Amino acid sequence: MNWDIIQGKWKQMTGSVKEKWGELTDDELDQIDGNKEKLAGKLQEKYGWSKEEADNQIDDYFRDR
């Protein structure tokens, strides 16, 4: 999915994103606001992933959305 679309629909998607990555708080999801780089950074911080792993997880998750 195109990230412009994700940014536009971010508020509607936060529930499913939180289901997938439950360690993200509502405040963090508000801060991310559909920004892929911010999401990747938070996933790295919360799960200890490399940038590449975070990007792969994000791409895999949003590919089918």
TrEMBL record:
Residues 4-54 form the CsbD-like domain. Belongs to the UPF0337 (CsbD) family. This is CsbD family protein. The lineage of its organism: Bacteria, Pseudomonadati, Pseudomonadota, Alphaproteobacteria, Rhodobacterales.
